[in-house]
Amino acid sequence: MHQLTEEIIASKEWRIRELEALKRIGIITLNEYLLREQQQYYRMCIPYIYAHWEGFVVESFKSLITYLNNEQLDKRNVINELYTFSLQKVLKPLAGKQSFEQSYQFVEKFVKEFDKELYIEPSLLTANSNLNYKQMTIIFSKFGMNNCVEKYKSDINQLVNQRNSIAHGENGIIIEKNHVSNKIAVLQEVFDMIILELENYLSQKLYLKSV
Q1: What pLDDT digit, counting tens, does each position of 59-75 carry?
Q2: Residue 208: beta bridge partners?
Q3: 8 with 60: CB under 8 angstroms?
Q4: Residues whose CB is less than 8 angstroms from the CB of residue 149 and which lie 6 or more positions away in sequence, other chains included
Q5: 136 and 156 in contact (C-beta within 8 Å)?
Q6: 3-state percent helix, strand, coil for the chain, nearest multiple of 5
Q7: 11 falls in which pLDDT band (50, 70, 90)?
């Protein structure tokens, strides 16, 4: 197993322990409270679960970026998706209409960067604080990776939508103990699928072009 995969697994394990603690607190301490207060606690669990979802994804893929940068890869050898990802800031001025001066500045930057080793600015990896299914597929595509979470599309979107609603003060959403347990179980499955995809990507060096 790749060393980076082991580090990502360690990250997953402590996050799952944190999430499992939410369930234990609910089971041990909430029985004496009114149903409304129990639902309030479980509603507050949703933003916490989401935080670990986004945190795991962003941390894992930023670790992958660091690994790829440290490999000092020749840009001519990496897959086009990664090369394009690394050039996002350089390509940005080409959006919409541009003057000759802007085009010249682009060419100047592009030529300057062309012969350098692959470098991806870590800040280019963002979930925009809204890591829904579409955003996740964009992250996969930037690395030229397979979308391994398609079957969890509705689960991911539901978590994000509920988190957004709760974060904006909506209190009409009913969240119960079994909902929290199910979300944690699904999230663990999603984490495992992402880890398997990352391990395959690293061990098979799928960031390089086929010879």
Answers
A1: 999 999 999 999 999 98
A2: 78
A3: yes
A4: 133, 136, 156, 190, 193, 194
A5: yes
A6: 75, 0, 25
A7: very high
1 within 8 A of 169, measured Cβ to Cβ: no
* Structural element, H or E, at residue 78: none
Copy the structure tokens of residue 116: 């350098």
For the chain, the C-alpha Rg in angstroms (whole number) is 21
Specify the pTM.
0.88
- Cα–Cα nearest to 124, from 99, 90, 173: 90
For the chain, give the percent of residues with pLDDT over 70: 86
Cα 129 to Cα 20, 135, 153, 160, 164: the distances in Å are 23, 10, 17, 10, 10
User: 27-35 — which CB contacts under 8 Å span 24+ positions?
Assistant: 27/177
Which stretches within 74-132 are classed as H helix? 80-86, 88-91, 100-114
Structure token pair of residue 147:
């979308």
